Amino acid sequence: MKTKNMHKLFLIAVSVIIFASCKKESENIFTMFTDVTVTYNNSDPRCVTDYKLVNDKDEVWIDFTINSASEDMYSYTIEKSSGTQTPERTIITINDATKRRSFSDIIKLTMNRDGKTTYRIYALNQKGIFIGDGKKSVTIEVKPSYMIYANRDIYLPDSIGKSLPSFFSLKDASGFSYTNGAANSGNIDFGIYRKLASNSTPTAIAYTYNLYSPSVAVNPLTVYDISAWAPKRTTKFSAPITGQSTAFLTGAVSGSTIETLAKARTINLDATAGTTLANGLNSGSAVFFVTPEGKYGMMYINAVTSDYEKRPFINVSIKVQR
């Protein structure tokens, strides 16, 4: 028995010795890629060297120098990271062979996204393999340039109680009923209503949903007399535009991008004029608008539905310039 145990111990000892003799020292990931350095230069007041707080539409420069001590750089990547989106990467070739160990350039940006955006520059060798980023990056933060109001319910008018919030303010996303609308008319941008589409029977999908400004020349909802309301806001609207989910979520990301999207549409209506569910205020569509103060905005329709008491309403989210 003792001989058997001794034999096992001998085998274990030999295995440890062999493993130790074959083991290769691996470089720590935190000490790798030290041959490349990146310097963010402060050559101009517009430059960012670490962190910079700016306004929407400001111009910001990234003046950088990237050096590689032991390996030629054949290209570099500009990596842009914003929020939870997948980073955007742009690869730029270094064509001048004399600059493959030290390369400088200035990236000029016009900021058009609220919040923080981080930029990282890293070098690639001849095979397109990462060789270092100097373990540095810069972050630019754009001050809030728009307001966002998510998931606000606007009810269809109730002609009996007249107490449901079927009027809406785009200034602060407040809802008003016909009962308290007159006292708050200076804040109301529109009301909503529905009517049967042509040649339809009264089912939920047979209706078309529209909005109208209190300043509209002819009130489309005669059951609510708003003729004496004063003052009346004169917000203008576009016709509903379908398929606007991506534009709302990832396109309208600053006051300037909201304005660009809005100005691409015709915004001249006091009331929308949809005749079917699809071309009225419908899920996935959006209405662009400009307020009397000159603020552009986008209202996205999340859903056209009913609550547990079967009272129909539309659920909207809004982005509007500050």
UniProtKB/TrEMBL annotation:
<feature type="signal peptide">
    <location>
        <begin position="1"/>
        <end position="20"/>
    </location>
</feature>
<protein>
    <submittedName>
        <fullName>Uncharacterized protein</fullName>
    </submittedName>
</protein>
<keyword id="KW-0732">Signal</keyword>
